[in-house]
Amino acid sequence: MSTPSDPTAPQVPVCPRHPDRASYIRCQRCERPACPECQQQAAVGVHCVDCVREANRNAPQARTAFGAPLREGRPVVTLTFIGLCLVSFVLQQAMGWQWTGELAFSPAAGEIEPYRFLTTAFLHAPGFLHIAVNMYALWVVGPSLEFALGRWRFVSLYLLSALGGSVMVTLLAVPGSPAWFTAVVGASGAVFGLFGAILVVLRRLGRGAGQILVIIAINTVIGFMFPRISWEAHLGGLLVGLALGLAFAYAPRRRRLEVGVAAVVAVGVVLVLAAAGRYLLVA
């Protein structure tokens, strides 16, 4: 037999999120009871988790000097590019030319299979020196640019620099010559694009770039040590990186998104038209 509760007895406050828990401490914002699990210590008093979440949602997001959201943790995009290169390198060792030959770029092959303009950036020459130097350079430069520029601008910079390297090879190779049919491989074009961009970024921030210049010099020397690594790809990537770096670093504060998107689209269109025009002249 149940006993009816006394309506005049004082009601025990309970946590709205956990009605089975008595909560005598109230949120300083909404004044609702908050159990220990739902309490967040504030500068003055205690806030409930709902009020803290709402305050964080409405607070201005911290941004870098170039307008990118300020992130903590691992450089996800940089690690992804490194991982793709390493996986591809393992497949090169396991499958030999069967893998490399399907993805490597030459001006002649690129005319028939345009995807090679980009896929060749995930291949490397035999041995470990080429990929080791490129991945080291990517690890040194990539995280700083990824955090400073933001992920979408960093991805655009990397891929368009890789594309720029292949396009420059196409523009400078003589049709019908051995260079027209020789495969070139490597992430060097993309890496040199990062070099170009970080030089601009460091300049914009008023910092020195001595270490980056040393890395550029080392990669340039490496480029002359292997037959399928071309200085033309380095040059193309570097020019793209400088162009996008200027657009990203010097865009007006209130027009960063618009300028960034416009720069990416413009550089992409120029590269595609340059390659297409070259092939039309050859035809």
UniProtKB/TrEMBL annotation:
<dbReference type="InterPro" id="IPR050925">
    <property type="entry name" value="Rhomboid_protease_S54"/>
</dbReference>
<feature type="domain" description="Peptidase S54 rhomboid">
    <location>
        <begin position="113"/>
        <end position="249"/>
    </location>
</feature>
<keyword id="KW-1133">Transmembrane helix</keyword>
<feature type="transmembrane region" description="Helical">
    <location>
        <begin position="115"/>
        <end position="142"/>
    </location>
</feature>
<keyword id="KW-0812">Transmembrane</keyword>
<feature type="transmembrane region" description="Helical">
    <location>
        <begin position="180"/>
        <end position="202"/>
    </location>
</feature>
<dbReference type="InterPro" id="IPR035952">
    <property type="entry name" value="Rhomboid-like_sf"/>
</dbReference>
<dbReference type="GO" id="GO:0006508">
    <property type="term" value="P:proteolysis"/>
</dbReference>
<feature type="transmembrane region" description="Helical">
    <location>
        <begin position="209"/>
        <end position="227"/>
    </location>
</feature>
<keyword id="KW-0472">Membrane</keyword>
<keyword id="KW-0378">Hydrolase</keyword>
<feature type="transmembrane region" description="Helical">
    <location>
        <begin position="233"/>
        <end position="252"/>
    </location>
</feature>
<dbReference type="InterPro" id="IPR022764">
    <property type="entry name" value="Peptidase_S54_rhomboid_dom"/>
</dbReference>
<feature type="transmembrane region" description="Helical">
    <location>
        <begin position="154"/>
        <end position="174"/>
    </location>
</feature>
<dbReference type="GO" id="GO:0016020">
    <property type="term" value="C:membrane"/>
</dbReference>
<protein>
    <submittedName>
        <fullName>Protease</fullName>
    </submittedName>
</protein>
<dbReference type="GO" id="GO:0004252">
    <property type="term" value="F:serine-type endopeptidase activity"/>
</dbReference>
<feature type="transmembrane region" description="Helical">
    <location>
        <begin position="259"/>
        <end position="281"/>
    </location>
</feature>
<comment type="similarity">
    <text>Belongs to the peptidase S54 family.</text>
</comment>
<keyword id="KW-0645">Protease</keyword>
<dbReference type="Pfam" id="PF01694">
    <property type="entry name" value="Rhomboid"/>
</dbReference>
<feature type="transmembrane region" description="Helical">
    <location>
        <begin position="76"/>
        <end position="95"/>
    </location>
</feature>
